[in-house]
Design brief:
The protein is of the alpha/beta class and 185 residues long. Helix content is 37%, strand content 16%. The model has no long low-confidence stretch (mean pLDDT 88).
Length: 185
């Protein structure tokens, strides 16, 4: 079994990283890849560049070496849609069960995604809890609501701290290597 945890990771933080490790264990996933989105359609502009987000992911994985990065969406020259990514992943791993892991905030807008009805053909959708999100309890074989405990950290919270130039207030929210990286840019 192989998992892909999608997100903008703007920036990546302990909420992403610790949750990724926990969901990997919860579902007994052999390999779990963080799958950064090049240009998220459903979010405002990104704070960090694609290059910076990839550099931060690589720094974070020094501490979280049980995770990997899949940069296929970042590497695309054209627009990147999740359905196209899943088709490509399924072609690369035809004999593996594939999990697509997203946050509850992304799940709330799933009906606006390109060809969202087809996602279940290519992957088991896994929805992670999010603060103030309502879990959809309907029975659906293509959606699994994770039992992984919520880690209440958000990239929005971190970007707010950065606007105030308060890098020292980031301790405990993301790895020290990322705090040092952010201080230099």
């Amino acid at each position: 079994m192989i998992g892909f945890f999608g997100g903008s990771f703007d920036p990546v933080h302990y909420g992403h990283l610790k949750t990724a490790v926990a969901i990997k264990k919860e579902l007994a996933i052999d390999e779990l890849f963080l799958l950064p989105c090049k240009e998220p359609v459903h979010k405002n502009d990104l704070h960090f560049s694609n290059k910076q987000r990839l550099e931060m992911l690589n720094l974070a994985l020094v501490e979280f070496d049980e995770l990997q990065i899949d940069s296929r969406e970042m590497d695309r020259k054209s627009a990147s849609w999740t359905i196209d990514t899943l088709k490509e992943i399924k072609a690369n791993y035809p004999n593996k069960k594939i999990f697509l892991i997203i946050g509850a905030d992304s799940f709330a807008t799933l009906n606006t995604w390109k060809d969202h009805q087809q996602l279940g053909k290519y992957a088991q959708l896994v929805v992670l809890p999010r603060a103030n999100s309502v879990q959809d309890a309907r029975k659906n074989s293509t959606v699994y609501f994770a039992k992984t405990p919520l880690i209440d950290i958000s990239s929005t919270q971190i970007r707010s701290i950065l606007k105030g130039k308060m890098c020292d207030n980031l301790t405990g929210l993301l790895p020290d290597s990322l705090i040092n990286y952010i201080k230099k840019i």
